[in-house]
Amino acid sequence: MKFVYQQMQEKGIKVDVVTYTSMLHWLSNDGDVEGSVKLWKEMKDGGLRPTIVSYTAYMKVLFDHEYLYCLLKGTAFD
Predict the structure, then answer these.
(1) C-alpha–C-alpha distance, residues 78 and 70, integer Å
(2) Is the four-CA dihedral 44, 46, 49, 52 of positive or negative sign?
(3) From 23, 37, 47, 70, which residue has the greatest number of CB atoms within 10 Å?
(4) Where are the domains of the chain?
(5) How far is CA 58 from the centre of its chain?
(6) Confidence (pTM)
(7) CB of 5 within 8 A of CB of 19?
(8) Please, are residues 53 and 21 in contact by the beta-carbon 8 Å criterion?
């Protein structure tokens, strides 16, 4: 999935909130918390507005992998 995402970026294909949400699901299943946080920030910095599905995918990876510290510090949603 990361390869496809990188190829899309290299070819100038616009990445939308659906793509980001799919990536968040994939990263969650892979257990990549840091990748999820980075991707979330990238999506928000890119001006995309997360959907309820995006938030659910993001919260899932944080809770499934006990990443509550970021939530409590308020840094997970920056």
Answers:
(1) 10
(2) negative
(3) 23
(4) 2-73
(5) 6
(6) 0.75
(7) yes
(8) yes
